[in-house]
Design goal:
Blueprint: H1 3-13, E1 19-22, H2 27-35, H3 43-54, E2 63-68, H4 70-73, H5 83-89, E3 93-97, E4 102-104, E5 112-114, H6 120-129, E6 134-141, H7 150-169, E7 173-180, H8 188-208, E8 217-218, H9 235-249, E9 256-259, H10 266-278, E10 285-290, H11 292-302, H12 309-326, H13 334-341
Parallel strand pairs: 1-2, 1-10, 2-3, 3-6, 6-7, 7-8, 8-9, 9-10
Antiparallel strand pairs: 4-5
Helix pairs in contact: 7-8, 8-9, 9-10, 10-11, 10-12, 11-12
Bound molecules: 1,3-dihydroxyacetonephosphate.
């Protein structure tokens, strides 16, 4: 394993002012997103949409890496350049989602285990040849009556560490993503305790399975009030509770923490990240690896129409720019107006 290469890639992904675009929606998920804008999910529409994102001029000022899906890493831009090559040429590191999705966990109604370890070693070799330099694996835990169970937390943590070890062996930086969903009526205190239990299990497994912490990134949820809770925590509370949780569970050897947006509004995801960075410096870089919070306005502007590509690219650039500002805690809500008018 080339430890130095892993560390350099990990650090490049959390370079100051930059973060990651998660464009690794599986075929099922992108179909849902397209349905919301009335676009049919054909292979060519999916390709055209990713083309629009990846060719957005200037995005590389704020985007260090892009997570691709299996289909996408095999596709080409409109000018015939493979997407991974196009991104690398612009100084954006290509990555790949390698899990096979969350499936029902045996003997645990309503809980899931993320699959995809069988044959992973061989798939990683191929992805590296296709240009990937980092990987992502997402575990999903939900807060409910008696859930998540310790059983679901620890089996998912074990699988995350198996994935991380195989990725590092292949020279790929693993993005370890234990997502606690924020759907439900739970309080922010409950989210804090479940997120802490989860991160504790994940770092125990990473340690036991000899993962090089300097050559990985953590992709956690922020600690929020349940989306259906009548009491919603303020931006300051979210920033403070999320930071407290991370300080207690994430070793300083980890170079960066790249949050998922998890269904927050675009503006909230940016404001929360900015508030955390305002309270820095921290032992790790605090950055983003957003899917919906970077893409939602672009998707809405595009609506599958080639005539809207420019407007969609402007919308994506604007979100990337504002999240870039949040990396140094210098975002404010009034910047939303300025960009929209520009
Ligand atoms: P969201 O930011 O939309 O939660 O997506 C990030 C991601 O990659 C989930 O696996």
């Amino acid at each position: 394993m080339n430890e130095q290469e892993l560390q350099e890639t990990a650090r490049a992904l959390v370079a100051p002012g930059k973060g990651i675009l998660a464009a690794d929606e599986s075929t099922g998920t992108i179909e849902k997103r397209f349905k919301s804008i009335g676009v049919e999910s054909t292979e060519d529409n999916r390709r055209a949409y990713r083309d629009l994102l990846f060719t957005t001029e200037g995005a590389e000022e704020f985007v260090s890496g892009v997570i691709l899906y299996d289909e996408t890493i095999r596709q080409k831009a409109s000018d015939g350049t493979p997407f991974a090559e196009l991104l690398s040429a612009r100084g954006i590191v290509p990555g790949i989602k390698v899990d096979a999705g969350a499936k029902p966990l045996a003997n645990a109604p309503d809980e899931t285990i993320t699959e995809g370890l069988d044959g992973l070693r061989e798939r990683l070799v191929e992805y590296r040849l296709l240009g990937a330099r980092f990987t992502k694996w997402r575990a999903v835990l939900s807060i409910g009556e008696g859930t998540p169970s310790e059983y679901a937390i620890w089996t998912n943590a074990h699988a995350l560490a198996r994935f991380a070890g195989l990725s590092q062996e292949a020279g790929l930086v693993p993005i370890v993503e234990p997502e606690v969903l924020m759907d439900g009526t739970h309080s922010i205190e409950t989210a804090y305790s479940v997120t802490g239990r989860t991160q504790n299990a994940v770092f125990t497994e990473l340690h036991d399975q000899r993962i090089q912490l300097e050559g990985m990134l953590l992709k956690p949820n922020m600690v929020l009030s349940g989306y259906e809770s009548s009491e919603q925590a303020s931006v300051d509370e979210v920033a403070e509770m999320t930071l407290r949780c991370l300080y207690r569970h994430v070793p300083a050897a980890v170079p960066g923490i790249v949050f998922l947006s998890g269904g927050q509004s675009d503006e909230d995801a940016t404001a929360h990240l900015s508030a955390m960075n305002e309270r820095g410096p921290h032992p790790w870089e605090l950055s983003f690896s957003y899917g919906r919070a970077l893409q939602a306005p672009a998707l809405k502007a595009w609506r599958g129409d080639g005539a809207n590509v420019e407007a969609a690219q402007r919308a994506y650039y604007q979100r990337a720019r504002l999240n870039g500002a949040a990396r140094s805690g210098s975002y404010s809500r009034d910047m939303e107006e300025v960009g929209a008018a520009a």
